[in-house]
Amino acid sequence: MSLLEVRQVSKSFGSLAAVRDVSIAVEKGELRAVIGPNGAGKTTFFNLISGFFPPTAGSIVFDGVDITSTPVHRRVLLGMARTFQITEIFPELSVAENVRISAEVAAGYRLRPWLGRAEAAALRARVDEVLGLTGLAAKADRLVGELAHGDQRAAEIAMALALKPRLLLLDEPTAGMGDQETYEITQLVRRLHRNGNLTIVLIEHDMRVVFHLADRITVLDQGRLLAEGNPREIAANKAVQAAYLGKVA
Amino acid sequence: MTQLLLFNITNGLIIGAFYVLMALGLSLILNLSGIINFAHGGFLAIGGYFAFTLTPYIGFWGALLVAPLLTAVLGLAIERVLIRRLYGRDPLYSLLLTFGLAFIFQDVTRFIWGAQGLPVSVPAFMGQPLSLDFFFITGYRLFMVSVVAVAVTLLFVLLRYTRVGIRIRAGTLDLDTVAALGINVRALRTLNFAVGIFLAGLSGVLAGGQLGLEPTMGDGLLMPSFIAIIVGGVGSLTGTLLGGLLIGVASGVTSVFFPSASEAVMYVMMAAVLLVRPRGLFGEEGMMT
Amino acid sequence: MSVASLPAARRVARRPLALALVWLVLLAAPYWMPFLGGYTALGTRVLVLGLAAMSLNFLLGFTGVLSFGHAAYFGLGAYGAGLALKFLTASTPLALILGTLVGGIAGALLGALIVRRRGVYFAMVTIAFGQVFYYIAFRWSSVTGGDDGLRGFSRQPLHLGAVTVDILGNAEAFYYFVLVCFAIAVALMAFLLRSPFGRTLLAIRENERRARFLGIPVELHIWLAFVISCVFISLAGGLDALLNNFANPHELHYSQSGDLVIMAVMGGMRSFWGPLLGAALFVVLQDYVSSLTTNWMSFIGLLFVVVVLLFPRGLLGFLQRGSDK
Fold it and tell me: Of A143, B212, B248, C160, which residue is the least packed, with the fewest Cβ within 10 Å?
């Protein structure tokens, strides 16, 4: 059974059909890239999977459970974490605090008025672990709002990691980054994938990143599923090339 | 009994028309700029007082036109100097600003014109009731409703058919895109604000003729305006229009059966709307929420 | 608010020295106030309004929710406590608890109605609902005394076993009674804000979308914060009624809500003690200005304008920024 099954999902906004009848199945432990020209519906697709809004048609099944009408926060608690194209973090809090909140919710402490000493220690350890994994240990006490773009993105990924997700959705993790930062984020994602028992789906525009990381690639074009396969297959796929070339003004 | 009901429905519509005029101005400003203008009642009072001061020189009809214009100019000045600085910020600050302005207005009007109520004279023919059966329908009330009807029609025409109006409506939906199209958003907001204040000033002139003038006269109208907007739906002027009429009528009808509850019924309606259809009767999901 | 415009906003560290200083000042107030032209009841008033402003700030500054109708719950606490003393009990603490219950329950019910709204719409609705209670306080004059307010009750001396504390006749005794209540309330608030639950509120303030995508059920948590702040503010209201032996309908008007908000903003929304400082400043200013001129309303209005335009981070925010350079 696949970890994530998206079955014939469509989403329309009024007369605008952003996603049309798309189906994918992501296996546990896979790293899937979703690519496509601008306007292909990739972020809308992510929004559907993460529960930002409901699909107009179709269903979404996560680890065998139909989550089509499950609200956002419940999906997160079921093991789905997400990052955004425009980094969504808590700007006026420190990196450690950002991650800590994440870890606390994941541990089920969100309504707790206090924490026992052992629990607090365990939490601290978890936060340190995540910070170590994402290379942010040195910047733990800096305010996230003041960090460089790449570090903010890493912080967001750290927050997602602290949730102990089974599925990680990364929306253009290297958007707006220079070569060095792109490299670092790519290495981070690869590390997380290899070490972490994590299934990752990412949207990317940077083809170097895609071909470097992906086990399988899904190509969307104008809301529809255009092609799917391993990197070699997709690189050789004429229709995919046409879709991208056709968009060049 | 039916006559009594009809009487009260009509009375309610008249009151409602008045709420509409006030609420529309408030709604305009809220929709485009995201600002709750607490000072709206203050502008209303100032409009009335301007009319009072001007009438000896330019007569009732002159004052009817000029006083709201003057009030709008005042509004324009305040928008440019004060309110404009707060657009990018947390809505909290614009709330506090208009709050403070409301205090200042009330005090200043009291300072200039005195705390006592001032009588306002209207043309003689308006003071007469039009019929003995419907004695509450004085010529003045009918006049008021006509003015409101004209103003509202002109407003909707402005918004539907003029370039400025279309820009305002577009701005309500997506101000960023409007700005990206090269339209001067700041001027648009200023103009929109001025129109809203014009309506407030006009309300004040009309209210003065009906209730007399006093510095706190705007207060009692602010809440019904809020409720009209909430009931009708935030973001929709049509909603505000209908909301105002609805609460006016509800208030009027309730005064037949439970006279002391006629004010309360507005709040009950608001609670009901929030429970059943939180976005209001004509509101769009996602407007202001 | 863009990050670029924020100074490095360090949260006021739990500097034990600063904290000790605050409590020292509060404990000694009846003794140093007369030297500055003050009097004990004024200090009590500052405590009461400070608690009210801090309760409001639990919602405003720490959860990021724009509630502008909180004076209504203050008033409910006042009338609740007053009516309890008048008709139900001679025990002052019990009356306080009853007043707090009234405000808390009202907050729970109304909060549930409005918790899905945000921003200015939320503010509008809180104001409108607040006005309902104002209106009831005025109209239901057989119970509430209408425009004249609720009278005919007074705080009763506390019988604590062997000792009787005369909080009725002795202004200092009452001040310390209020201080004890204040201390308990404030300690609870601080406790909650530093808990995992409190951190979820900060998260909601900082970025609601991110909070939701971390698994926080945002509406539920906002409702809880709303109820908590209503409970504390109605406690403040009850204390206010005890202070004056009188419950005033005008204290439910939305202009009073605005006053509470400006106190929080003026002192510093992001800081725990800011609202207390703001309340002190506001009360003193209002007292002073109204003794000088009948146009004190203009000055209060001007204060709003000046704070908003020049000191949006409040006094403590302003000072913090200075210390970070």
Answer: C160
Q: Please state the pTM of the whole predicted model.
A: 0.90
* C244-271 residues labelled b (16+ CB within 10 A) or e (exposed): bebbbbebbbbbbbbbbbbbbbbbbbbb
In the block, tokens 């404009």 appear at B84
Tell me which residue of C146, C184, C150 sits closest to C47, measured CA to CA: C184
Residue C22 near residue C203 (C-beta atoms within 8 A): no
Q: Are A209 and A153 in contact (CB under 8 A)?
A: no
Q: Show which subunits contact C, needing at least 3 CB pairs below 8 angstroms.
A: A, B
**How many beta-carbon pairs under 8 angstroms link A with C?**
90
Interface of C with A (CB under 8 A): 3, 6, 8-9, 191-192, 195-197, 199-200, 202-203, 206-207, 209-210, 212-218, 221, 224, 270
Q: Domain for residue C127, yes or no?
A: yes
Structural domain for C149, as ranges: 49-250
Beta strands per DSSP E along chain B:
none
Reference A5, options A31, A21, A27, A29; nearest CA is A27
| Whether A115 and C200 lie within 8 Å, measured CB to CB | no
Residue A185 CB neighbours (<10 A): 22
- Which residues lie closer than 8 Å to A23 by C-beta, 6 or more apart? A5, A6, A7, A8, A9, A58, A225
Residues of C in contact with A91 (CB under 8 A): 3, 6, 206-207
Give ∠ CA B205-B209-B214 in degrees, rounded to 5: 75
CA distance C128 to B222: 10
The answer as to whether C155 is a domain residue is yes
**One-letter identity of residue B139:** G
ipTM of the shown complex: 0.90
pLDDT in single tens digits along all 249 residues of chain A: 899 999 999 999 888 889 999 999 999 999 999 999 888 889 999 999 999 999 999 999 999 999 999 999 999 999 999 999 899 999 989 999 999 999 999 999 888 888 889 999 999 999 999 999 898 999 999 999 999 988 999 999 999 999 999 999 999 999 888 888 899 899 999 999 988 679 999 999 888 899 989 999 999 998 999 999 999 998 888 888 888 766 544
Amino acid code (one letter) for C12: V
- C60: nearest Cα among C228, C209, C286: C228
Count the domains in chain C. 1
Distance linking the first and last C-alpha atoms of chain A: 42
C261 shares contact with chain B (CB less than 8 Å): yes
Q: Which residues of C51-74 are buried (b: 16+ CB within 10 A; e: fewer)?
A: bbbbbbbbbbbbbbbbbbbbbbbb
Q: Dihedral sign, CA of A92, A97, A100, A104?
A: negative
Q: Which of C210, C269, C320 to mutate to test the interface with A (most CBs of A within 10 A)?
A: C210
Task: Answer yes or no: do A102 and C214 touch at CB < 8 A.
Answer: yes
Cβ-defined contact of C214 to A76 (cutoff 8 Å): yes
DSSP class of residue A138? G
- Distance, CA of A30 to CA of A185 (rounded, Å): 18
